[in-house]
């Protein structure tokens, strides 16, 4: 069922049709639960069937992320503009149709409400540094507040500015370092590669912790 | 005595004439001035605003903090006076602290000042009222309204230690030299698509989260009106060149900055509140400058004739 007939149709139309297609939903469900015959493991083994991710291991939440963003990440993993030893072979083992399917599968899942959101301690130190970078930036080094693009509390904005709120600190930290080192270079206008170079390791750790403690469904923790 | 009075009256005029740009000129829809090339700009004094951590406790510090809050979240904190989706900080980055982004510390000490925009000496408070009428497409808060008092207090705090009546380095937006080719809509459109639409949207409509703009709309009903300084090409080009895209200020060529400013300012926006039924008369009275496209025809559209609402 999945398949060939759809190829050649413009991508947008394909997306719209696939949304309503049980055949493709089943395919995505199969990928999430069992992977595919070309070596892609089940997505859920790291990201969870509910797309919650695994904070302790640094596996990011995918549930509720923008479908276009997710699809582009899979393409970029496959191409290598987002370099990752685990995700690159997985993305390469997914056909374009399968990438669309899983991207939409996770985009449609509800954003999981965290049982407990740990609020960073107030006062000076790492948390104040993270809060300041997140909400005000460091303009002396041309670093805008993260919130200026990623939205209040880092809830994410559109297809290009993914949510940071509630993502594992280890994940956010790894991404900032990847931008810095150029192992991730799929950012529009080079925005992240450019500004991440102005951040120290302490800045990165602090801001990652701040966003990890924010509610993914909107602002409930504020400095 | 008389001579001294005349000298006092003339001082702001002289200062304004020496200045290549007007402080807070995001909003200053003045009549055209001779653009002062950066190389010939008068010597300036540098200034660094105080750290926010030094805002004192107590009622004065509370007023400074209120001013900062209004500056950052204008629509939310001063809803009675804001008629669009913008906040002060959209055009004055880093809570009004950033050099070359019309910082408050560069403006505060330049008032009272004579302004061609309204042909009289304006207090700083009146200057702030202008921001609300034009850039915020709203209403002027009374001069003794807490909104004005708080913004004045915030500015005063930020400018502490800066010399009065002296043009400071980083005040206003740095003028961008006129480009080789006249600003062009089609070229501007392609710059916009390449470097601006990512954040401001393909239609310049901005992007919202939960009903609140994260990226401001550049034209249309929720943007600044035809009376705002940013509708003038030189001011828009200056802001854009120095500050856009966020974190990549200075990235665009001079030509790109002028072209995309022209593209932005060739779209409809809310009417100039001084309009009283005659577009040509309004242009002649307030916008008689090649820097304003108001009342002119671009791509077959007479700008200002069908303002966004």
Automatic annotation (TrEMBL), chain A:
It comes from Frateuria terrea. Residues 23-110, 125-215 form the Cytochrome c domain. Heme c 1 binds at residues 43, 46-47, 87. Binds 2 heme c groups covalently per subunit. Coiled coil: none annotated. Heme c 2 binds at residues 146, 149-150, 192. This is Cytochrome c553. GO terms for molecular function: electron transfer activity; heme binding; iron ion binding. Keywords: Heme, Iron, Metal-binding, Signal. GO terms for cellular component: periplasmic space. Pfam families: Cytochrom_C, Cytochrome_CBB3. PANTHER family: BLL4483 PROTEIN, CBB3-TYPE CYTOCHROME C OXIDASE SUBUNIT FIXP. Residues 1-25 form the signal peptide. It comes from the Bacteria. InterPro entries: Cyt_c-like_dom (IPR009056), Cyt_c-like_dom_sf (IPR036909), Cytochrome_c4-like (IPR024167), Cytochrome_c_Oxidase_Subunit (IPR050597).
From TrEMBL, chain B:
PROSITE patterns: CYTC (PS51007), PROKAR_LIPOPROTEIN (PS51257). SUPFAM superfamilies: Cytochrome c (SSF46626). It comes from the Bacteria. Keywords: Heme, Iron, Metal-binding, Signal. Gene3D superfamilies: Cytochrome c-like domain. Residues 1-16 form the signal peptide. Residues 183-268 form the Cytochrome c domain. One of its GO terms (molecular function) is metal ion binding. This is Cytochrome c.
């Amino acid at each position: 069922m999945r398949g060939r007939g759809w190829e050649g149709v413009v991508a947008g139309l394909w997306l719209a049709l696939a949304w309503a297609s049980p055949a493709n939903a089943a395919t995505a469900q199969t990928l999430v639960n069992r992977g595919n015959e070309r070596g892609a493991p089940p997505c859920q083994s790291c990201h969870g069937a509910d797309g919650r991710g695994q904070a302790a291991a640094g596996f990011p939440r995918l549930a509720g992320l923008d479908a276009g963003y997710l699809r582009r990440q899979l393409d970029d993993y496959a191409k290598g503009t987002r370099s990752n030893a685990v995700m690159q072979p997985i993305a390469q083992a997914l056909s374009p149709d399968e990438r669309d399917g899983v991207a939409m599968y996770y985009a449609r899942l509800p954003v999981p409400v965290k049982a407990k959101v740990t609020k960073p301690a107030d006062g000076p130190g790492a948390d104040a540094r993270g809060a300041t970078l997140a909400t005000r930036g460091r303009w002396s080094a041309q670093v805008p507040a993260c919130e200026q693009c990623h939205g209040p509390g880092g809830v994410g904005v559109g297809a290009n500015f993914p949510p940071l709120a509630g993502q594992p600190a280890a994940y956010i930290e790894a991404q900032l370092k990847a931008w810095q080192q150029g192992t991730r270079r799929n950012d529009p206008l080079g925005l992240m590669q450019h500004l991440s170079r102005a951040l120290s390791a302490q800045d990165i750790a602090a801001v990652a912790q701040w966003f990890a403690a924010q509610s993914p469904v909107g602002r409930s923790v504020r400095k | 005595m008389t001579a001294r009075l005349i000298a006092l009256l003339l001082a702001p005029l002289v200062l304004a004439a020496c200045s290549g740009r007007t402080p807070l000129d995001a909003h200053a829809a003045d009549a055209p001035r001779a653009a002062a090339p950066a190389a010939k700009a008068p010597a300036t004094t540098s200034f660094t605003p105080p750290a926010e951590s030094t805002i004192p406790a107590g009622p004065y510090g509370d007023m400074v903090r209120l001013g900062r809050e209004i500056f950052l979240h204008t629509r939310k904190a001063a809803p009675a006076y804001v008629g669009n989706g913008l906040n002060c900080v959209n055009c004055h980055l880093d809570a009004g602290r950033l050099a070359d982004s019309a910082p408050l510390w560069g403006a505060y000490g330049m008032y009272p000042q004579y302004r061609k925009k309204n042909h009289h000496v304006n207090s700083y408070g009146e200057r702030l009222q202008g921001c609300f009428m034009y850039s915020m497409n709203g209403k002027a808060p009374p001069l003794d309204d807490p909104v004005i008092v708080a913004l004045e207090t915030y500015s005063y705090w930020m400018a502490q230690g800066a010399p009065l009546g002296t043009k400071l380095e980083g005040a206003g937006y740095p003028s961008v030299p006129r480009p080789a080719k006249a600003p062009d809509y089609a070229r501007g459109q392609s710059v916009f698509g390449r470097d601006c639409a990512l954040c401001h949207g393909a239609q310049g409509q901005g992007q919202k989260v939960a009903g609140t703009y994260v990226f401001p709309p550049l034209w249309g009903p929720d943007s600044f009106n035809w009376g705002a300084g940013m509708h003038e090409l030189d001011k828009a080009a200056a802001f854009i060149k120095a500050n856009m895209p966020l974190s990549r200020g200075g990235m665009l060529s001079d030509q790109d900055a002028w072209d995309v400013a022209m593209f932005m300012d060739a779209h409809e926006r809310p009417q100039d509140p001084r309009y009283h039924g005659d577009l040509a008369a309004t242009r002649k009275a307030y916008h008689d400058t090649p820097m304003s496209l108001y009342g002119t025809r671009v791509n077959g559209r007479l700008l200002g004739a069908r303002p966004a609402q």
